[in-house]
Description:
Layout: H1 2-25, E1 30-34, E2 37-43, H2 49-59, H3 68-75, E3 81-88, E4 91-101, E5 106-114, H4 123-137, E6 142-148, H5 152-160, E7 164-169, E8 180-186
Parallel strand pairs: 5-6
Antiparallel strand pairs: 1-2, 2-3, 3-4, 4-5, 6-8, 7-8
Amino acid sequence: MLKxxxxxYQTKFMNTKRLLKKEHLNIKNxxxxxxxxxxxxxxxxxxxxxxxxxxxxxxxxxxxxxTEEAFMPELKPRLDRFYLLLRxxxxxxxxxxxxxxxxxxxxxxxxxAVEPDFQDRGLGYFLVAKVIKKAxxxxxxTVSLEVRVSNVKAQxxxxxxxxxxxxxxxxxxxxxxxxxxxxxxxxxxxxxxxNNYGM
Length: 199
C-alpha cells in the first residue's frame, strides 16, 4: 500500500513539475523594443540552424564554433534546453542557447551570438536577461557560462548583470585552445543586484 502511495505521489508530483516547466519555457513569439528598435523575439527552431551557424561565422571570423550537426539535438523539442532568437525584417540578428539542469538547479548559457552589424545595441544583454528571468521562474539557484579570456567586452556585460568570475578553464576552446573564464550568477542575490535585467 505504501509503495503504491509513493508511486502515485512521485508520478503526480513529477508530471505537475514537468507541466510547470513546460509552461515556464513556453514563449509566445512577439515584437520587443530594445533601446528604441523593434525586434521579433521567438524560440529557436531546427529550421533556424543554418542562419545561426551563419551568425557564428560572422562573429568568429568565418569559423563557426558550432556546426549544424551540433545544433540539431539542441533544438529538438526537449525540456532541458532553452533557445531564443531575435529577428529584424525577417533577418536573424541574435540568438542565445542554454541547458537546464534540474538536479543542480543551474541554467548554463552555452552560446550567445549577435550579428556584428547589430552589436552594441543591447541585444546580447536583452537575451541573457531573458534567460535569467526563465531561470528564476524555474527556481534555479544559478546561471553559469564560459567566456573567452580575450572577450573583455562580454565579460563586462555579464558582470553588469551580476555574474562573478569563478576561475579559468585552461585550453577550453576547440581550435585555438584559448582559456575560458568561468562565470556564475547567484540567483539568491537577485534582489541585491542593481540591474532589473532590462525587464
